[in-house]
Design a protein that fits this description.
Layout: H1 14-27, H2 31-43, H3 47-54, H4 59-71
């Protein structure tokens, strides 16, 4: 039987671990559930959001990219509308 799930490890510093524990407690979620939702959300975002979150561009390059995306008409975007994260 082939599993459709994977287990991954995350390395966190002590402060991040404490904050994650606190967040999970406030939300009534396990760490696995919270991290699974974060990864699903992140992977469904476009390149711009992923790049912004990962901070893989310099501030100057990111500003240039943001300006060019803001000038691009909605009709030319991949899906024609701006998505809003569900709460």
């Amino acid at each position: 039987m082939t599993s459709k799930e994977s287990i991954m490890r995350v390395q966190l510093d002590a402060e991040s671990k404490e904050r994650l524990d606190s967040l999970c407690g406030r939300r009534g979620m396990t760490q696995i559930a919270l991290m699974s939702r974060l990864v699903q959300w992140f992977c469904s975002q476009d390149d711009f959001i992923q790049t912004s979150v990962l901070q893989t561009l310099s501030a100057t390059s990111l500003a240039t990219l943001a300006k060019s995306l803001m000038k691009k008409p909605a009709s030319e975007r991949s899906d024609g509308h701006v998505s809003v994260a569900k709460r």
